Amino acid sequence: MVLDVGCGSGSWLMDMATEFPSAQFIGIDQASLFPTDIRPPNVEFKKVNILNGLPYEDNTFDVVQMRLFLFAFNKYQWVQSMKEIYRVLKPGGFIQLLEVQMIDPGDEIVQSFGNKVKEIMESNDCDPEICSKLPSLIESSGFVPMEDVRESVNLATNDSLANEFMYIIDISVNSSRSLIMAIYNLQSEEEYQNLKAIYLESRRTTSESTWYCAVGQKPHPHS
Question: Is the dihedral of CA 151, 99, 22, 29 positive or negative?
Answer without folding.
Answer: negative
